[in-house]
Specification:
With 382 residues, the chain is an alpha/beta fold. It folds into 2 domains: 214 residues, Quinone Oxidoreductase, Chain A, domain 1; 161 residues, NAD(P)-binding Rossmann-like Domain (Rossmann fold, 3-Layer(aba) Sandwich). 26% of the residues lie in helices and 23% in strands. β16, α11 and β17 form a beta-alpha-beta unit. α3 crosses α4, α4 runs parallel beside α5 and α6 packs parallel to α8. The chain is globular.
Length: 382
């Protein structure tokens, strides 16, 4: 089969790789139809995530058709058209029982933090991902969800990560009616978080970024205020001034390890790798939120330490919430939102690219060319 092959930082290509096989009775083999490139994939692509090994296939957002199932798989069958959450979850461990599917202990038992994730380095279990023609899906009775009849395939693939992660970013913010919510980052997750903040009752939504076309997109899609931090003397001071010197009620870090905006953070976190990524957005979130406010973190950082103002967290009485989205928990509600027109995920997709042109797709997305918001790989038809 053809699959994306990671050859080192900023080097990916399509190669022939062996077909995946059923390795456990709870496995399924899925023929991929659509697979996204995620902003989190760019952290891998740029060499910012430890233990990203040469030869790995990325891709944690995909849909496909079930081709084969193990003997213990009963909830899906051959021929089903499914969307596959990025979490690999057993459904039985202590964390899955709490619906913390992003923290499954059985899918990644060597880790003390994250659970298993498709195509996301060996820190997340070392599973090959869905930027390929076929993929092995463990615990196939737990994650894969049959796509409702008539759902647009572009909407379906966005339900594997972007929509639930953006929604959970807003949910973890504990947004109350009338709250001012600031989202750092106007990538797909930040855009979706801004849109979903209104669903929880926000009275004002502000998005901070430095890419003008992304700011224009989120302004129109999420009906929010937007500001380019390059034009602000100090984003933190600006947010304080625009909130009666109190700070925002909720701040969301939707950027993670490759945030721009601080020379020191960029050098130590992105160039020298002395910390687990540039924590610029997280610093701004902590310092911009009001006393007693909530910071929601869905931006991805590596597993080592970061330079953050923990003293400010304590002295301001801030609550910080973060996790990988529990896609399975959220899917019923989000499928309803999509089917009822409350959320329009496919509107974020700007590029459809054949799997064979994956190198170009990564370059376009990483370099923010051609007004790219979200690229989708079209691998095969239904």
């Amino acid at each position: 089969m053809l699959a994306m092959n990671y050859r080192g930082p900023q080097r990916v290509r399509v190669d022939k790789k062996p077909m995946p096989e059923i390795l456990h009775p709870e496995d399924a083999i899925v023929r991929v139809t659509r697979s996204c490139i995620c902003g989190s994939d760019l952290h891998l692509y740029n060499g910012n995530v430890p233990d990203t090994r040469v030869g790995m296939t990325f891709g944690h957002e995909f849909t496909g058709v079930v081709e084969e199932v193990g003997d213990d798989v009963h909830k899906i069958k051959v021929g089903d058209n499914v969307l596959v959450p990025f979490n690999i979850a057993c459904g039985k461990c202590a964390f899955c029982k709490q619906e913390l599917y992003g923290n499954c202990h059985e899918a990644n038992p060597q880790a003390t933090a994250v659970g298993g994730i498709f195509g996301y380095s060996h820190t997340a279990g070392g599973y090959d991902g869905g930027q390929a023609q076929y993929v092995r899906v463990p615990y196939a009775d737990v994650g894969p969800t049959v796509i409702p009849e008539g759902m647009d395939p572009d909407d379906a693939v966005m339900l594997t990560d972007v929509v639930p992660t953006g929604y959970q970013a807003a949910e973890m913010g504990g947004i109350q009616k009338g709250d001012t919510v600031v989202v750092f980052g106007a990538g797909p997750i930040g855009i979706m978080a801004a849109r979903c903040a209104w669903l929880f009752g926000a009275g004002r939504v502000i998005v901070i970024d430095h890419i003008e076309y992304r700011l224009e997109f989120v302004k129109n899609y999420a009906n929010c205020e937007v500001y380019n931090f390059r034009s602000l003397e100090d984003p933190v001071l600006f947010i304080k001034k625009t909130t009666d010197s109190l700070g925002a009620d909720v701040c969301i870090d939707a950027v993670g390890a490759e945030a721009a905006g601080s020379t020191m953070q960029t050098i130590t976190g992105r160039k020298l790798l002395l910390q687990a990524g540039s924590a610029t957005a997280l610093n701004w979130a902590i310092n911009s939120v009001k006393k007693g406010g909530i910071v929601s973190v869905v931006g991805v950082y590596g597993p080592t330490g970061n330079l953050i103002p923990i003293g400010n967290v304590v002295n301001k009485g801030i609550t910080i919430r973060g996790n990988q989205a529990s896609v399975k928990r959220l899917l019923p509600r989000l499928i309803d939102h999509v089917q009822n027109g409350i959320i329009d995920p496919k509107a974020l997709i700007t590029h459809h690219v054949p799997l064979e042109e994956i190198s170009d797709a990564y370059r376009i997305f990483a370099d923010k060319l051609d007004n790219c918001i979200k690229p989708v790989l079209v691998v095969s038809e239904r």
